[in-house]
Predict the 3D structure of the following.
Amino acid sequence: MSAWSVTEPSRASKWVAGLLVVLYTCITLLPLVWIISTSFKSGPDSISYPPKILFQPSLEGYVNLFTTRTRIAAEDFAALPPPETWYDRIVRDQGMVIAGQSRFGERFLNSVIIGFGSTFLSIFLGTLAAYAFSRFKVPLKDDLLFFILSTRMMPPIAVAIPIYLMYRELGLSDTHLGMILLYTAVNISLAVWLLKGFIDEIPREYEEAALIDGYTRFQAFRKVVLPQAATGIASTAIFCLIFAWNEYAFAVLLTSGNAQTAPPFIPTIIGVGGQDWPAVAAGATLFLLPVMIFTILLRKHLLRGITFGAVRK
Amino acid sequence: MTGFLTGLLRLRRGPWEMLASILIALGVVMLMQPFFLWAYTWSFLVTLVGTVMFIVVSHFPE
Amino acid sequence: MPNPLEAAARATPAPLARRVRGLSDRAIAWIFVAPTILLLLAINIFPLIWTVRLSFTNYAANRPNREVEWVGLRNYSRILTDDGIWANMQTTAHFLVWTILLQVVLGFTLAWLINRKFRGNDLLTTLIVLPMMLSPAVVGNFWTFLYQPQIGLVNYAVELVTGIPASSFSMLGPGGLAKWSIIIVDTWMWTPFVMLICLAGLRSIPDYIYEAAEVDRASKWRQFWTITVPMVLPFLMLAVLFRGIENFKMFDMVVLLTGGGPGNETLLASIDLKREAFEKWRTGYSSAYAIILFVTVFGLASIYVKALNKVKER
């Protein structure tokens, strides 16, 4: 690059731009920082005014998130043996005893099972379909692609009514399989569109060379195209996983106990006398943190995927 | 403008898609505007006609 | 696996071999596409057709034994003359217009600033993008905490900056602020999306156009309006349509923030639909409601795809 370039912004303008963007970043991250810090506060600290920026860290929120607690009569409370574990002690400090485990662990596990199950399925089916759309003459190709995209745009509540009725008939409501199939159906449109873009970028010559070498179509697909598309497949998988992880509307309408995921569960966490904010914050933190870490670690693929999905066909 | 009209007459895709898009946009505006109840009442029909038209005319030749 | 077709193909010269395999290409294409199409037919299209059918009846899902009557277009005519639902559409419009406006202004500005390519811009981009990756439901839930009257962080920040006492207003309570509160959260969450699309647009402008303009002694201001804006506009258009569609069917974030309240102040169409369908159990009526929303989204989606093709041609 030459020393003089009209398109290279001046140093001063870079500084100003940088400062403004840093300012925006700080403001936009504040709610996230706040929710993480609230998860380490004690109950009274979390609702003190003015809000406490410095506080004694406590694991109360996390303990409350994973347990259910009860108050017992004062004389019984005094007669209890001293607390045996650190979490026992935290609960006793609030004047309560542990009554049992909460359902958060279960809900979190449901999120993991349904998220990974539907991601695997939508990537598997999506890769096949995307390859076919990218390489073969499929009749009515444009109509099919538009049809696939338009299913993504459907308002969840609009299809929820018959899906609710259909699942009730088939015995799929509140099951893992039902949710996996449903999320696969929603994700597959994104998967096909993104993957078609990635596969379109792989030169056809590679496969043609493989075909001439005596590979069958299927072998060429498996041994030539799949390795080339690996990064594309990986970033598509992350999008599908994030969608299934975050989804709320279907989850709240179609699941109640057995297969409920974490998003409909977290808002229902309540303590004694109103919402237990440190516990809610702890649940939100545990739930959001994996996504944040994923986003930061895989930023290159993710950012490319977002623009790719919206801008390219 | 004359290009647009001859395109319509010859059943070309471009101008017809434009017309369908305008109908859809009009329908959406009618649905959400706060001024006339009659416009709200007929908005759905306008959007529906626009959408069906869009699907049909996207098969016209370029 | 030795199969006769395979063996024949191996023995024939390359062009002919390709034709032999070419015959099965069509079969492979169908085998590859069919599962996807079948799944979508079963879980999207079949329910949709069912919704259309239900929308002409008075069926109620909580009373499956009641005799189902065919009511023709009555559900539609009732919805389309209902003042309450019309008001919900206007609430939706208010939410749509303001979120899109704010996100476009903020998103474009940010993209324009980030495009100065200062040091560390990619790390900042990642950090800015974080909110849009999170679960809207959980986000809505924890913003209710930030919006708590008297103790919330937002009230505190407002008092700190403007001096208005924190106890004198409530972001989610009565007083008309709730419909702005949901706009703030949506903007917080989705500005990064518009920013990324704009950034893709800005980066698609080749340098030589600016260099040519510089040779012609066009001012920076003029370059901005005659090169940057028109070149980014198609991308911006896509972002606007996409956000428009998403927010037209917005449900999760707002339902957890306000649940449609106070009163009906933030009752977006899809939240109202959920109440009709799953709380009042007027299945037939709400199916017609769903179809109205669906056709609107579908219409917007076709414009979106058209715009997409325009951008792709670039």
